[in-house]
Amino acid sequence: MKIRAANASDYPELRQIYLESRRKSFVWESEKEMALADFDRHTNEEHIILAEEEDCILGFASLYLPDDFIHNLFVHPAYAGKGAGSKLLDAAIEIMNKPLTLKCVSANHQAMKFYEKNGWKKVVEEGGPGEKYWVMVYE
After folding, report:
1. Given Cys at both, which of 36, 37, 70, 124 links 15, Cβ 3.0 to 4.6 Å?
2. Which of 16, 121, 18, 120 lies closest to 74 in space, CA to CA?
3. What percent of the chain is modeled with pLDDT above 70?
4. SS3 (DSSP) at 78
């Protein structure tokens, strides 16, 4: 498995991964309101890295480098549990400066377990009703 910076030719596949992953795991959001164009809006001005195996993109992370913040980390549902997420986290840690932060939706229990298993710690739960998330840190 290779981790590399994304380029413009990767975007169509990254948009699809983002959409399919959210539709499968974001049960608290309306699937009808999700669109391919969300990827571009939600990763604007971010450095995107991807996990690739045999020319197939498994997942990606978008990093907001000025704040050492992981904004998005998504693995295509067909490749979940095969190590791409952990490799993307490791690569983000190498690229950015500690401490790194991210936000994880409180209702996303599977993601929360994944981050904790990879050494991230919950700091504080924020947000309003129906929009709660944990700020997490990696030191």
Report:
1. 36
2. 18
3. 94
4. helix
Strand partners, 135: 103, 124
**Does 2-138 carry CATH code 3.40.630.30?**
yes
pLDDT (average), residues 30-47: 82
What residues contact residue 74 under an 8 Å CB cut-off, 6+ apart? Answer: 17, 18, 21, 22, 59, 60, 61
Helix intervals (H) in the chain: 11-25, 38-42, 84-95, 109-117
Q: Taking the domains of the chain in order of start, what are their residue ranges? A: 2-138
Mean pLDDT of 58-80: 94
Which residue from 41, 109, 99, 35 is spatially nearest to 70, judged by alpha carbons?
99
Whole-prediction pTM: 0.89
What is the pLDDT at residue 32?
A: 65
